[in-house]
Amino acid sequence: MPRQQPRIFTGEALAQIAFPLGGIGTGTVSLGGRGQLKDWEIHDHPDKGRVQRFTFFALWARRQDETPVAKILERRILPPYNYGHGVPQDQLSGVGRFQEVEFTGTYPIADLKFIDDDMPVEVGLTAFNPLIPHNVPDSSLPVGIFLWKVKNPHVVPVEISLAVSVSNFIPAPQEDGGYDRRGATNEYRRSKGVQGLFLSNPRGKDDDPQNGTIALATNWERVSVTTRWFRSGWWDASHLFWDEFSARGTVTGPTDTDGSPSPQGDVSSMVLHATLKPGEEVVLPVVLAWHFPIMKNPPGFAVVGDEEHRILRKYLAKQFADAWDAVLYTFEHFDRLKEETFRWLDTMWSSTLPSCVLDAITSQVSTLRTQTCFRLEDGTFYGWEGCFDQVGSCHGNCVHVWNYEQALAFLFPELERDMRRTEFLYNTCSKGHMGFRTKIPRGIQHMEHKPCADGQMGAIIQAYRDWQLSGDDSFIKELWPKIKLALEYAWTITPDKARSFDSIWDPNRDGVMEGDQHNTYDIEFYGPNPMTTVMYLGALRACEEIARYLGEGEKAAEYRRIYEQGRKRVEEELWNGEYYRQKVEVFEGITIPERLLSPKPDAEGRILPKYQFGDGCLSDQLLGQFCAHVAGLGYLLDPERVKAAVYAVFRYNFREDFLDFANVQRVFALNNEGGLLLCSWPHGGRPVIPFVYSDEVWTGIEYQVAAHLIYEGLVAEGIRIVQTLRNRYAGYNRNPWDEIECGHHYVRAMASWSLLLALSGFTYSVPKGIIGFAPRYAEDDFQCFWSTGTAWGQFGQVLGETNREFSLEVIHGTLKLNALVLEALGEGICRVYLDGEEIPAVLVGKTLRLETVITLNRGQGLNVVQTQ
C-alpha cells in the first residue's frame, strides 16, 4: 500500500510546533518547528517556555578549496522580536541560520529538511524517542534521538562538522533555601564504543527533584570535545566558540574526565567530523539523555500533612542509574529500538485510512509521554487531566476525563489495567462510592466528594474492555467484587442514608439515573438524561456479561432486568423524535442549594436548577453508546434512533466557523475556525443559565462523536469533524502535538484512537479467541493497524470481482484465535492458510470458525481467500 502523506509545515506554520521527545513518565524535551530545542520539561512538573541557554546544533561545511560555511541548524527566527534587550543572545540569535525548514511529524518521529542556498550540503534530521506498542520499558527511555543526515550533492569532496552544545543547568540548594549552579560539573566520557558529555552537580541532594544528570553522546568515532567554554564575562565565551567553529569546524579546550566545578554552570560542545565523497550521504547520530529520578508528591495527589510521602521516586530511578546509563542502553539496543519504532509507524501510515485520521490518532499518543502522565518506582501509573504551563492540571486519574481516551488501552494495556486497579481496588469504598480522583500512595485517603456518575459507570465499561482485550481472567476476578459494588451503588444510597458527599442515582432500581448526577462538566444533572443513563446502561450490560462468564447467573439476570427497564424508559421518555433530551426534575429527598437555582423562571414559570441542558442536543448524549461500541457490548438503545441522534448532534452542533456565535466561556475555536459545540438548542428552550462549558469546543468530545458517526455508517460526517478539528492545529496558531482543553496535552483528546477502531470495524474478545474487521472506508482495498492486549499487527483486505482476499499479520506478541469475523465475506468457498499451509475452517455467516485453536506468534500470518 502507498504510504499516506502527513502534513508538512513550513514558514509561519513552524511557529507553535513543539514535538515532545521523551519516554512514558520521563518528561520531555520538545523539538521546535524551526529545529530548536524548547520546553525542557524533564523534572517533575510542566515547564512550558523553558529554553536552556546555549543548547543547539550547528553545522560547518567546506567544499574543496572554498570558504567554509557555518550556520546554526535552525530556521531563521520568526517574529515577534519585541524583547527588551533584543532577541535573547543566549541562543546565539544573531548567528546565521537556514533560510527555511520543512517539518513533517508522524509521532513519534519528526523529519526535518533544512534548506539554504549557501550551504554546500543537503541536510535533514530524523528525531524520535522509541515507541513500541506493548513494550513499556523501551517506550519509557529518557532520551531524544537525533539522526542528522548530510549529503554531498557535488562532484568534489566536502568536509563537514556537526556541533552540539549544551549548558549545565543542574542546580544545587543553597543554605538560604534557594538554588544556584555552582559546583556543576561537565565530564567527557567514553565507554562501550560511546563517547560524549556527562553533566551533573555533586552538590545536589538525593531527595531533591532538581537533582539529576544529563548526557549527550554519540557512537561516531571522529569527534572533538570541549567540556567547558572559556570561563569569562560578557560574551567572551560565545565569541571564542563561534569564531573557532565557524573558521575551522572544531572546538578546542578542556576535556575534563572527572569534572571541574563551575562557578555558574558551564557550556560543553561535542563536534562530529566527516569527509563526504561526491554523492555520499552520512548519518550522524546524537543521543540526548536525562535522569531526574525524584519528584515531589504533586498538589492534589498528596494528602495534606503527609510528610512521609512528600518525596517520591519515579520508575526512572529503577530503570537506570543515571543519564549515561540510559545512553549506553540506547546505543546497545539502537538498531532494534529504531527498527521496532519505525515498523509500528510504518504500519500505521501504510494504512488506507484518511491522512487526517492518522494524524489525529498518532499526534495525540504524544500525551502519554508528556508531564500529563507519570509512573512511580513500583510501576503504578498516574495522570493529570492535562498540564498548565508550570503545574499539572486537575489531579488524580480523573475517571470522567480518562473515560474518553482509548490509546493507552490498545498501546500499553498493562498501564491501563493498572489504572483500573487504582479505581476499583483503592478508590472504591465498601459502599461502592468511587472517588473519581486518586491520592498517592493509592489507598491512603478516599476522596470525600460526590462520585461522578458518568465516570464511575464508564470505569466499569473500561474494565470489561480491558478484560476482553487481555483475556486475563485473574484481572477481572480480582476487580469483580468492587465492580459489583460500584454498579450497585447506583441504587444502594437512599435519601435518608445519604452522607454529604454521597449521591442518589437510581434508588427505584429501574435503570434510569434521575438523582443528582455529578459529571464531567463539573456540575450535577438532575432528572433523567441520556448522558449518564446510557453510560449506566452500558455498565449494566458489562456486568451482565462478566457475571454470566463467572457463573453468577442470578446477578446476570438481575442486571439484565434493570437494563431492559432503563432502556425502555429512555426510549419512551427521552426521545423527542430527533435525539435524546433531558427531563429536568429534582428527585424527592434532594434539596438544591439556593446558589444553584436559576435566577429566572423558565417558560413554564418553574425555578429549576442551574446548569442543565433540558431540550438541548447534547454532543455527549450517547457517550455510553460510544463506549459500548468500543468495548464490544453492542447497541444499548434502538439502533435506528441511535443513528438519528448522533446525526442530529452533527447537524445541529457542528459549525464551519464561529464568526456569528457568541461564547462568553473558554474559547477553543474562534473566527473562521470550525468545530463541534458541546450543546445546542435547535428548537429553543435554552436554559437561562445552561450547563457549564456548553458553548465550548472540546477535541475529546469531537473525536468521540466523529468515531460514533463512523460506527453508525456516517463516515463522511465523522471525517469532516476530524479534518476541521486538525485544521485548527495548523502550527502557526496552535501546536499540532498539543490539543488543549483544561491545559496542554489534554487526556480526553486521546479519544482519537477510537477513529481507528470505528473505521476498521475492529472487534475483539481474547477470552473467546475472536477478532473481527468490518471496514467502513476504502473497503475494496483496505489496510490498517490492529492491537489487542496480547499482540498487534496489520490487517488487509482486497475485494475483487471473483476473489476476496484477507490477511492478518502478527508483528508483535502472541494471538490465540479460534474465529475470525469478516464483514466483507460473501458467498463462496473459503480457504484459510496459516503461513502458506491450509488449515480447516467452517464459514458460518460472516464468521470463519477454525477447527482447532491456533496461536499466531510474531512474524506469522493468516490468509483467507474466498472464491465466488
Quick description:
This protein has 868 residues and is an alpha+beta fold. It contains 17 helices and 43 strands. The relative contact order is 0.09.
**Percent in strands:** 25-35%
Mean pLDDT: 95
The gross shape turns out to be globular
Major β-sheet annotation: 9 strands, antiparallel
Classify the helix fraction into a percent range.
10-25%
Biggest sheet, spatial arrangement of strands: 1-8-9-10-11-20-17-16-15
Q: What is the gyration radius calculated from CA atoms? A: 29 Å
Low-pLDDT sequence parts = none
Offer a few descriptive terms:
about 850 residues; 6-stranded mixed sheet; 43 strands; globular
Question: What's the structural blueprint in terms of helices and strands?
Answer:
Layout (H helix, E strand, L loop, with lengths): L7 E3 L7 E4 L6 E5 L4 E5 L14 E8 L5 E7 L21 E2 L1 E7 L2 E7 L6 E7 L14 E9 L6 E10 L4 E2 L5 E2 L4 E7 L2 E7 L12 E6 L4 E4 L9 H13 L18 E10 L4 E11 L2 E3 L14 E3 L1 H5 L3 H10 L1 H16 L5 H11 L7 E3 L5 E3 L2 E2 L4 E2 L5 H4 L4 H5 L1 H14 L26 H18 L2 H20 L23 E3 L5 E3 L3 H20 L3 H21 L43 E2 L4 H9 L7 H15 E2 L19 E2 L2 E2 L18 H13 L3 H13 L26 H7 L2 E3 L4 E4 L7 E7 L3 E9 L3 E11 L1 E8 L6 E6 L2 E3 L1 E4 L2 E10 L4 E7 L1
Parallel strand pairs: 6-7, 34-38
Antiparallel strand pairs: 1-8, 2-3, 3-4, 5-6, 5-12, 8-9, 9-10, 10-11, 11-20, 12-19, 13-14, 15-16, 16-17, 17-20, 18-19, 21-22, 23-24, 25-26, 27-28, 29-32, 30-31, 33-34, 35-36, 36-37, 37-43, 38-42, 39-40, 39-43, 41-42
Helix pairs in contact: 5-16, 8-9, 8-10, 9-10, 9-11, 9-13, 10-11, 11-12, 11-13, 13-15, 15-16, 15-17
